[in-house]
Amino acid sequence: MGRRSRVAEAMAAVLLLALGAGCGSRLPESDFEDRGRTPTPAPSDGAPIRVGIITSATSPVGGSAFTGPRDGAKAYFDRLNARGGIDGRRIEVRLCDDGGSGVGNNECVHKVVDEDKVVALVATTALDYAGASRVSRARVPDIGGQPIGAAYDTWPHLYGIYGSLAPRSGTPGWDGKLYGGTEVYRYFKREHGARTAAVISYNQSASAAYARLVERGLKAEGYKVVTEQVDFALPNFRAAAADLKEQGADLVFDAIDSHGNARLCKAMDDVGVEVTAKVTNVQNWTSTVPDDYKDAPRCRNALWATGSSRNFEDTGQAAVREFRDATEGLKTHSQWQLEGWAAARWFTDAAKSCAEAETGVTRACVDDFMNRSEDYTAGGLLVPVRFERLAEPPERRRTCLSVARWRDGRGWVSQGDMNDTCFEVQQLAYEP
């Protein structure tokens, strides 16, 4: 059971980029052309194993928008070190904040890859991954990164948290197109009888493009689709909400930012809109819902999230419980933190395998572990992930889905098991 491209997560993150301020230019590739290509030798016995975490910790879209994977990965390595590390060697984490710009990202890649000589990158979460090609040329495995943009479906040696079936030979996807399934829409149709779906967007190019992608998927699953577009500068959410009520929408999807979502929800409550689900994605699957939607109790309790990892509130699962125990000191929790934790575990499994091999823990050995057509679940935290290089994109795939619903007083409540919530769905092309 392979992993599909998660269109909602990737496109929503790109939407954040487009709705934020400009992120600066990229440094010329020639500035780094000959750096970082030589293999990194295995460290001597007992020396720390060095990894890098590049994050847009400060960025035009807000200081905390992209820090979840970093925090989850760091928590994993802290606990691993407390338990003796890998074969007696501790993990030394080198953090770098790229500021959300291409220039900053290239500088971070140069620092951690060329100067710090890390064995691998882990849980990369970069708003503009301008240095991706240089990471690939240096043959540094980048493990469990968030697919903001198309880098993880473009370059070899990059292994995104959701897997990839693309050739990854320097061109995004297949001839510049990526593919994603319609499993989210199938789920609400099959499990909840939804038939009419609304898509809310801004009159802004990236927002409108994402909305069209969602509309295509909904129509492919047989929905009646209601589209609502509001002004980016002066959005009239109340008018949009009133039309949702008039049209009798069962579901609401959006192509707007988090602040706009909160205002939309308040407007829906104000005019008395009741829907089966206000559907959001993994970026907004957080414990901050009560504060984010404090003025919209009805809409807040209609929030549903979908993704490809086990609900961070599902503490009945041992792997989730371990994550929550280790991150007990964090003020908030999120699905992205759990996915960063899973990325760190992925690297650790690779490094432990290499520690037992003659080569030791090297970039090449870790990369060989990652570059396999075998499902990986991080101990049950992920829907099975794999990497293949298919010459042609799949027309249909069996895909599985993690689903949770917000309930005041209970938090995010899992809706079935993600490994059983599976659908055979068509794959739709889109341009990143």
UniProtKB/TrEMBL annotation:
**What are the residue boundaries of the Leucine-binding protein domain, all occurrences included?**
48-408
Q: Which InterPro entries does UniProt cross-reference here?
A: Leu-bd, Peripla_BP_I
**Keyword Transcription regulation recorded:** no
Region of interest (Disordered), residue spans = 28-48
Q: Which residues form the signal peptide?
A: none
Concerning Pfam families, the annotation shows: Peripla_BP_6
Nucleotide-binding as a keyword of this entry, yes or no, is no
Keyword terms of this UniProt record: Signal
Gene3D superfamilies per record: 3.40.50.2300
Q: Record's family? A: Belongs to the leucine-binding protein family.
What PANTHER family has UniProt attached to this entry? BLR6548 PROTEIN
**Protein's name according to its UniProt entry:** Amino acid ABC transporter substrate-binding protein
